[in-house]
Here is the input.
Amino acid sequence: MAFELKQSLKLSQQLIMTPQLQQAIKLLQLSRQDLVESINQEMEENPLLEEISPDEGNDDVIHEEIENDVISVERENVKAIERTEELNVEEGGGAAQEFDWANYLEDYGPVGVTYGGRDGEETSWDNVLTEGQSLTKHLMWQMKLSSFTDDEIRVCTQIIGNLDNNGYLCATVPEIAQLENISEEFVDAVLKRVQEFDPPGIAARNLQECLLIQARMLGVQNKIIEVIIKDFLKELELKNYVHIAHKLKVPLREVEIAVLLISRMNPKPGSIYSDENIQPIIPDVYVVKAGNEYKIILNDDGLPHLRISNFYREIMAGLTDHGHHEEEDGKKYIKDKVQSATWLIKSIQQRQNTIYKVAESIVKFQRDFFDRGIDFLKPLVLRDVAGDIDMHESTISRVVSNKYMHSPQGIFEMKYFFGSSIKTTSDGGAIASKSVKEEIKQIVSGEPPKKPYSDCEIVDLLKAKGIDIARRTVAKYREMMGILPSSKRKKYF
Here is the structure.
């Protein structure tokens, strides 16, 4: 069989993801905070990008005001110096010693960060941030106040370092003993001393030990509490107090008193020293009602406004074609960075325009929700918005991801307005699943504490409101919202 080479011409179409398109898609699905970090990183890597100041349009006025302020300050300083020299001449230098330097430093002190309020108001120290104390620092501080030997300090440090965020000991006693090359009895003795630290229940190895430590430190003299913690935690979780009273052969009232004390203990003692920072939600879109219409306002506060640096434009214009290799390299470098900066600015603008269109479409579909509340939330899927603004569903999915909308009904994630529908038999219409969940939540919040509604009773209550769904659907939605079954929601006291 003979092999031969041939040339053939073929015409075909291919969809290629260019780097610019990849960048636009990436920016579209970023949250607000991630977008700011991405822009700042790009500004560090690309010297041609610079941020536009809010007062950029009034440069001439600002420069003129600054020059006038400088001239007036210089004149005041000259007058002050002349007055000081006159006093020195008249009084033989005595006035220099009587000069009020404190007031002078207050008036002409260095410009910097101050803690004063506006118009001479005193500082509200509630608004000054302080560093929170972590669990490790709190325990190490207590260790330094205790009379530990060097070996005990090493073991205590290992114990504190092996605590999780809830304050439980992750390492075992044999592991710590092997790591420090010391006996297990010694480690166990140090552990008992650490378990006496604040907060109560710290350094426990399981929930049972944590509750027993707290009962001992609280000085509770009720023996039933220790027995329930040791032998009846499962029944305690199921609130089967009658079974506990029958097994212990004590009145039910005594069991209820013991359970009331146990319920006031903290099963996660280390969580109160959690160093997790709570990030406030900054809306990407504001929906404001003006008359009978809703206005869409994009929140650009905090987002850097970019432009290509004029400095490098002048450099680009100054590079002439003399054939020098250095100038050609510099010209190519600036050209590439200009193209990269241009694509970034266009991608950010396109991102904001797409968010605006999606928000406008959501408001159009969910007008009843913005007017009257969650009970009037309509079923909405990505396909509906995509067809309305002539975009692909994947683009809508990226837009609503990690974006928030501020509305007259509150702040919601843009993904919140999308959900499946449930058919109702009362009028043959459909209702959004989120509205059904809200109805279930309201029913549970208003139920009798000592006799909570079962799933079947919730079905009947929903049917009375015109929502006909199955019991398993109620159980599914209840579990999704983290609502316990009726047997665990029952309150005895």
About this structure: The first helix runs from residue 19 to 28. Residues 285-417 form one domain. The chain is about 55% helix and 5% strand.
